[in-house]
Predict the structure.
Amino acid sequence: MAGATDALHVLTLTELTKGMAGGEFSARELTETLLSRISEHDSLNAFITITADDALAAADSADAARANGNAGPLGGLPIVHKDLFCTAGVRTTCGSRILENFVSPYDATVVARMADAGAVTLGKTNMDEFAMGSSNETSYFGSVKNPWDPGKSPGGSSGGSAASVAARLVPAATGTDTGGSIRQPAALTGTTGLKPTYGRVSRYGMVAFASSLDQAGVITRSAEDAALLLGVMAGFDERDSTSVDRPVPDYRASIDAPLKGKRIGIVRQHFDAGLNTDCAARVKEALAALEGQGASLVEVDLPNLDLSVPTYYVVAPAECSSNMSRFDGVRFGHRAENPKDLLDLYCRSRGEGFGAEVKRRIMTGTYVLSAGYYDAYYLKAQKVRQLISQDFKAAFEKVDVIAGPTAPTPAFALGEKVDDPITMYLNDIYTIGANLAGLPGISIPCGFADDLPVGLQLIGPHFAEESVLHCAHQYQLISDWHRRCPEAFA
Amino acid sequence: MSLSKDQVQHIAMLARLSLDENDIDDVVDKLSSIVNFVDQLQAAPTDNVLPMAHPMDQAQRLRADRVTEPNERDRIQQNAPEVRDGLYLVPKVIE
């Protein structure tokens, strides 16, 4: 445990809580340290908005609460929110020109629950526009740089959240995951990224992209920290019509048990041609390590894995085209100048406000839902989604969790895939299945390929977050990949 | 399957999106490649498979029809491009 405030940035949430409880440093000192790191490293472009004054005030409140013996479960802990969580009085842009000046009148449930637990919000992180992207390059505010190599993408869409945690600007960040948008950037930046079961965490105040797939989660530097935050975020919310009413366990209570007896599924199709050979080697080493801890490895099949990406690129754009219709240039958001009539107002406000990828997805969705194409595309994709979901159910009759790669390659160069949507989409081949089936998944660092981090993904059955976190934590007890810090940010 | 320029312009109109004339060829190319890519779904055998709309297969929850939120029109309209007397202004739609 470091005592000096100049080393606070490397500590995990668990360590920070101990330090504040022991009086080694205050929430204000911690907040000041991290705010100055955030401005020192602004060339990463990880942030869209920094809320320094609000953060210092919240830190003072957290210190006062602790002095009175009332520290919350996240008392004084710093957090940043992906810029699609609504924050009352602070702008929420979704990385889009159309919401460049939008100030939410209310807090998302996730934001409110963390603040009520004593967390200190330092700002809002950069992201692919409306979470539509896998590289952070679709942001209206420019790409985020990967702290491991500024010429590389941090992944996306929660790229700013992942980069800020990897660069030790903050210990934890929220993210959202519709097709891999927490797990893939976590893999590409060497961080821990948890996507809970669909319905486990409230979507209220989370700007919608694809409502049957979107789920809020966290990016942290350890599974133990992810367990702490999930306990605060999770739980029923009457303001989210798909929130699941089910008790929230203490996610940290079960992570210390030995792995003995755990059945871990290895998916044959994961190691097909598409996976980079160095990434495959790192993942296999991690699987061997888990086996060494007493888990048994069992081969399973996900026969429709290849169809998960095309299924997603019908279902997600269809839901997107519906959700994005709320941006009309009338009630909020960008409005075109001097519209000649109402139709011109709609078309130009949206044409100017949305970037190229968002427009592509809206149009793809409009097409697959249009008369004459609905059955061939949308209904067909919903049926294949059922098959993919059944594949997971069958696998989970044999195993407790599935383990494999998070992404097919380490971080790729900025600009490399931006002009080829299909290549970009295929980046999410290992992550999309969990969204289609609504399953919890986590990505944890498991080594390096070409000096860039590689992620191991663990997926569990519905509401098996404890099991997924348990495996991840046990692996992090015998490895130190999650403690590796990019040299420029040590 | 390739989309034509006319089809893409029709889709853009349905979606209420203006496209820059200079961008249209690129949009046609990329949308066609996406449609080609998702066309591989057609080969999947899905007879007697029920479509899956939602991961939890749950019904919408019902609640009592009670007013639970305060009226915050003024605060909410601070985000509107143009309002007057609490009303949203749009170009004239009826002559």
